[in-house]
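ok trying this again, last paste got cut off
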Amino acid sequence: MKIRIGTRGSKLALVQAEIVKKELLLYDSSMEIQIVPIKTTGDNNKFADLTKLGGKALFLKEIEEELLAKNIDIAVHSMKDIPAIIPNGLKIAAVLERADSRDVFISNNGKSFLDLEEGSVIGTSSPRRAVQILKLRPDFKIIPFRGNVDSRLKKVQDKEVDATMLALAGLERLGLYEQGYQILDSHIMIPAVGQGVICIECREEDQDMLEILATINHSPTEILIKAERAFLETTEGNCKTSMGACAEFIDSENIQLKAFLASEDHSKIVIKTEKGLGINAYKIGQNIANSILKEILKI
């Protein structure tokens, strides 16, 4: 059987596609698997403000078009890039076991987030990170900061900014994590929905592929993602929304979801936590979203 994997052409995207390829070959070593790099609008506009162009979905658009056109069989993405609504005819068919979902703080002088000098310039294009940074360190200055992992690390090294934040999972997959970096626990910096998770998208009609992908799906991670994405979908979050959510198992059956949402003007930030059975993951995400929205909107 031949499977064509569509993915972005960045180093991290290709590494993640290779991880999926290995998982598939463990299922059936006779498979012929081809990785197909696809240039996306987001990749072609490396310095533009994505929130003005259409957000993270711009890193999926062309790949999903190729999937719908049957030029590829599956697509591999970072789950945190998947918007609340995906195109008709497609579905997230599998997720791999979650890597560490936390963020990493990287400064050019090795100082920690709380110890960095007053007035330091932090490079990030993430509304989620920006609002949480300024909540804890209102003295910092935030400037837009795009590019792949390597280029952002180089900008910090070259002192274009004093510090930045990156996902630990991506750094580790690229072999770029260093001991001097500061890992921020989720009580300090709540991660993005789906952070640390590789997901596989395919056509809803492709029953053969759905069956194959089910064999590599990591069920515990799927449960956590249901809770987080229920929060995303219920709040109708998008690339401009300052929000985050992180679910984890607290025992073999129960999960805890911690989430936050900021008002549009960032004058109000609401953080809530809810626990419950994993089988009720989606409902937990909905409940916490509605509770936060009620407080934000003062219904």
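PB: full thing came through this time. The CA atoms of residues 40 and 211 lie 28 Å apart.
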